[in-house]
Amino acid sequence: MGIEEQLPSGIALTSVENVLGLARKHSQFPVTMGLACCAIEMMAAGTPRFDMARFGLEVFRASPRHSDLMIISGRVSQKMAPIVRNVYDSMPEPKWVISMGACASSGGMFNNYAIVQGADHIVPVDVYLPGCPPRPEALIHAILTLREQIGKEPLGANREKIARAAEKAALEATPTHQMKGLLA
Questions:
Q1: CA torsion angle for 172, 167, 134, 75 (degrees, to 10)?
Q2: For the chain, which end, N or C, has fewer CB atoms within 10 Å of the first or last residue's CB respectively?
Q3: CB 42 within 8 A of CB 14
Q4: Closest CA to 112 of 177, 172, 178
Q5: Which residues share a beta bridge with 115?
Q6: Backbone dihedral region of 129: left (phi > 0), alpha (psi from -120 to 50 degrees) or beta?
Q7: Cβ-based neighbour number of residue 157 at 10 Å
């Protein structure tokens, strides 16, 4: 009986996924994407009082090519939506998105034609952060939640397949203004 039969299948790949997952989990580089009032709370999270630097997130990158985490903070207008998507497409793989605030997550109190009713209609969102505006501590908690998800994600084609399926589902979702029932 060979060693292949004695070991469980995929043990080498599992070990590599664990090591690389740990490395990816602790090395996010956020891109600057402050769109409205939530951006003030996002900036406050980087100040010494809340100290995002202890998690290695002290520098927000101005270039999407150097970033792998997008924090969409604030309402996304219809005019800004293609720009947000362009920034997302410019980021290298793997990439993650946090939707910060009620406006970015669901349109908030702006249920009209000018505001996109959720950032998930533009880009696939990994973590939703509720609140109007959410506190800096909540943003730090959302980042830690995202890190737990990143540590458990599969590598390679599996990760891309999952991301593409989530993106397809988000883009095919019914817009809020077309929904019937309690929202009408």
A1: -60
A2: N
A3: no
A4: 177
A5: 77
A6: beta
A7: 8
The answer to whether the CB of 109 falls within 8 A of the CB of 99 is no
- The answer to whether 62 and 32 have CB atoms below 8 angstroms apart is yes
Among 94, 168, 179, smallest CA distance to 124 is for 168
Residue ranges of the binding site for [4Fe-4S] cluster: 37-38, 103, 132
Mean pLDDT score of the chain, rounded to an integer? 80
Which pLDDT band holds residue 8 (cuts at 50, 70, 90)?
Answer: low
In contact, 73 and 84? CB cutoff 8 Å: no
Q: Return the number of other C-beta atoms located less than 10 Å from residue 94's C-beta.
A: 14
Binding site members: 37-38, 103, 132
Q: What is the mean pLDDT of residues 168-176?
A: 74
- SS3 for 69? strand
Interatomic CA distance for residues 75 and 43, integer angstroms: 16
Q: Is the predicted pLDDT of residue 159 greater than 70, yes or no?
A: no
Look-up of token digits 């990816």: 24
